[in-house]
Design brief:
Layout (H helix, E strand, L loop, with lengths): L10 H4 L30 E12 L6 E12 L3 E5 L6 H8 L7 E6 L2 E2 L5 H11 E4 L11 H11 L4 H14 L15 H13 L5 E5 L7 H18 L3 E4 L3 H4 L4 E6 L2 E7 L4
Parallel strand pairs: 3-8, 3-9, 6-7, 7-8
Antiparallel strand pairs: 1-2, 1-4, 4-5, 9-10
Helix pairs in contact: 4-5, 4-6, 6-7
Length: 273
């Protein structure tokens, strides 16, 4: 399939993205964590937390949000994090996404311990190796679908033509290639969220982290978006960590990690279906 050349992209809005690092600024890797005792040696560990604590000091009494969290995620797993509001599931996701710093413990991502990186290197790591999908799509309304997907790659130093070609290919994988010239306001809510998923995976990230990605959608579009994540995990081998309140969706993932009051109370490996 062919497409016409999109119009120029505003440099002003490019500078507003959280993607401001040079292409050669990737942090140096450090040795990856070893597999835990009793785990199958064949699957590669892609993310791991060790004795992880998060404490907030927002008043006279400190509040512990996460208590000694030990979670291992292997490459290609589709993992759901669930729990009531205040359980710590989103805090854990933000720590796994290098969007926040732990109070103590370790967070290993793709062979790098996050505590060893300064803020600039953490930003570089996020943009180089992680993909994010949030409850709201955060698409730029002035830009077309293909521009929204291509912009993060262009900020990494990938030339425009290559970035747009990769964006178009990714849109095709999600059944959105026919919409590449439209603006976000011309899409349905489900289509907007699928574009945000395309933006997250176009850079070929090591891990895709999703925070309530179906929370603003009706049941039909929520099911479509979930099916996109399932396809990415099972057909493309993507590693996906998703926070969700939907227990039905959580039961259809490879791993279901339940939190309560900042502690993991259940970590279940589930058969694919």
């Amino acid at each position: 399939m062919t497409r016409e050349e999109p119009g120029p992209i505003s440099q002003r809005l490019l500078t507003e993205q959280d993607l401001d690092f040079e292409a050669n600024d990737r942090p140096s890797p450090v040795p990856p964590p070893s597999a835990r005792a009793g785990e199958a040696p064949g699957a590669e560990v892609i993310a791991e937390t060790r004795a992880l604590y998060k404490v907030l000091h927002a008043g006279a009494t400190p509040t512990t949000i996460l208590h000694h969290i030990d979670v291992t995620i292997r490459r290609g797993e589709f993992v759901a994090l669930t729990g009531a509001s205040g359980s710590g599931k989103s805090t854990l996701l933000y720590l796994l996404g290098a969007l926040d710093r732990q109070t103590s413990g370790e967070v290993w991502l793709d062979g790098t311990e996050m505590g060893a990186l300064d803020d600039d290197d953490r930003a570089a790591f996020r943009n180089e190796r992680l993909g994010f999908v949030f409850q709201f799509h955060f698409l730029l309304p002035e830009f077309s679908v293909i521009e929204n997907v291509a912009i993060p790659m262009m900020r990494r130093g990938i030339r425009r033509g290559e970035a747009e070609d990769r964006a178009y290919q990714t849109l095709g994988l999600l059944g959105l290639e026919a919409l590449w010239k439209r603006k976000p306001g011309q899409l349905s809510g489900g289509q907007q969220q699928r574009v945000s998923i395309a933006r997250a995976v176009a850079n070929d990230p090591a891990i895709v982290l999703a925070d309530e990605p179906t929370g603003n959608l009706d049941s039909h579009n929520a099911a479509l978006v979930f099916d996109v994540f399932a396809h990415l995990a099972r057909e493309q081998g993507r590693t996906i960590v998703m926070v969700t309140h939907d227990t039905e969706f959580a039961q259809r993932t490879d791993r279901h990690v339940k939190l309560r009051d900042g502690r993991v109370i259940e970590d279940v490996v589930q058969p694919r279906r």
